[in-house]
């Protein structure tokens, strides 16, 4: 019998999540009908490939055996990432885009409401115990500060000092902050001690790094090459720079700079990034992050069934997909072994 996965849980709970999302929109009130319509349109337009919104529900299940009480946190996750995806496009220098029937300015306004006021309304709702509302609200604020710090570090990355440690610091903000937000929130909602909340926060940080590494790989595999075109300093680039040593690192960084303006530069850089020795280092580090996540789950323990779902979730978020390219005619892109999931969104989160 196949073990339950996070996808199975999402299938079981998707109707509850949809109902909670509609209830959240209703919290905007009759005087904000235009706001409600705009946010609803933004949510319908900004869909995601992976239903990671169930993560706080799984954490709550680990702690209590019941994922259902954390459905509001699944909606918070969805709202946050919907806003973050749009803002990520802006931070990367992309033009402001319309969303569905929304004009550019309307989409931007809806993004602001989706990211901050509406999640705060959700955690202040009667569905959340009164004693938990303040701490959960503080987690949302903390997340936005941490995620913005990570994004700024990413934008201001000094390409002359590219290191794996520096990239991890940025990833802890960009992806670690939102994932650690929902894992810590779920633990607080479950009534965990402060010490246990911090363990769940650490797990969320590690999971966020793993998912960012997954998203980075998908950017190459799908041929989107958004990271190369945006000049993003990825962990894979840092592996290539550190592997090259001081004599050749400048050449790698030169290709990185050229890739922002030239398809040929991006193709040349991709060849460097997919060198066997670079991929070997990359795979070893992914395995180390995965092992760290599993160690935290062993330390946390909890409900066996939901812990098994979460361990499987970690494994699904941390495959090594990249391979050195096949140089045969007509084939320049690498492929993964076996099934590859559908392309993710710009930030790489699942449909929350």
List keywords for this structure.
about 350 residues; mainly alpha; Farnesyl Diphosphate Synthase; 14 helices; about 0% strand; disordered C terminus
Structure overview:
69% of the residues lie in helices and 0% in strands. It has 352 residues and is mainly α. The protein has one domain: Farnesyl Diphosphate Synthase. Mean pLDDT is 88; it is low at 328-332 and 335-352.
CATH topology: Farnesyl Diphosphate Synthase
Largest sheet, in brief, is: none
Give the strand content: under 5%
What is the molecular shape? globular
Secondary-structure element order, N to C: HHHHHHHHHHHHHH
What structural class do you assign from the helix and strand content? mainly alpha
List the helices and strands and how they pair.
Blueprint: H1 6-26, H2 33-45, H3 55-64, H4 71-91, H5 104-115, H6 117-123, H7 130-155, H8 164-189, H9 194-221, H10 226-230, H11 235-259, H12 263-273, H13 276-300, H14 304-316
Helix pairs in contact: 1-4, 2-5, 3-8, 3-14, 4-5, 4-6, 4-8, 7-8, 8-9, 9-13, 11-12, 11-13, 13-14
Summarize it:
The chain is mostly helical. It has 14 helices and no strands.
């Amino acid at each position: 019998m196949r073990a339950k996965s996070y996808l199975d849980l999402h299938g079981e709970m998707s109707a509850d999540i949809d109902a909670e999302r509609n209830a959240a929109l209703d919290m905007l009130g009759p005087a904000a009908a235009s706001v409600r319509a705009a946010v609803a349109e933004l949510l319908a337009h900004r869909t995601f490939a992976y239903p990671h919104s169930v993560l706080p529900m799984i954490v709550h299940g680990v702690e209590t055996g019941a994922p259902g009480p954390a459905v509001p946190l699944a909606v918070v996750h969805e709202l946050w990432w919907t806003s973050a995806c749009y803002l990520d496009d802006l931070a990367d220098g992309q033009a402001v885009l319309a969303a569905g029937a929304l004009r550019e300015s309307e989409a931007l306004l809806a993004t602001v409401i989706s990211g901050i006021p509406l999640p705060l309304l959700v955690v202040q709702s009667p569905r959340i115990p009164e004693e938990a509302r303040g701490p959960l609200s503080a987690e949302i604020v903390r997340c936005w500060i941490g995620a913005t710090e990570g994004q700024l570090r990413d934008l201001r990355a000094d390409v002359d000092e590219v290191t794996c440690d520096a990239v991890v610091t940025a990833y802890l903000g960009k992806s670690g902050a939102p994932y650690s937000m929902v894992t810590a929130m779920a633990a607080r909602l479950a009534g965990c001690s402060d010490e246990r909340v911090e363990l769940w926060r650490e797990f969320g940080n590690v999971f966020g790094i793993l998912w960012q590494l997954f998203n980075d790989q998908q950017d190459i595999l799908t041929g989107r090459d958004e990271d190369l075109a945006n000049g993003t300093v990825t962990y894979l680039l840092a592996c290539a720079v550190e592997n090259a040593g001081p004599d050749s690192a400048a050449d790698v960084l030169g290709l990185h700079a050229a890739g922002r303006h030239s398809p040929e530069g991006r193709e040349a850089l991709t060849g460097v990034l997919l060198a066997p020795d670079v991929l070997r280092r990359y795979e070893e580090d992914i395995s180390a992050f995965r092992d760290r996540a599993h160690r935290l789950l062993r330390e946390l323990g909890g409900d066996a069934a939901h812990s098994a779902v979460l361990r499987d979730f970690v494994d699904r978020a941390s495959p090594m997909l990249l391979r050195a390219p096949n140089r045969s005619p007509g084939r320049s892109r690498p492929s993964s072994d076996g099934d590859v999931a559908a392309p993710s969104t710009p930030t790489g989160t699942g449909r929350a």
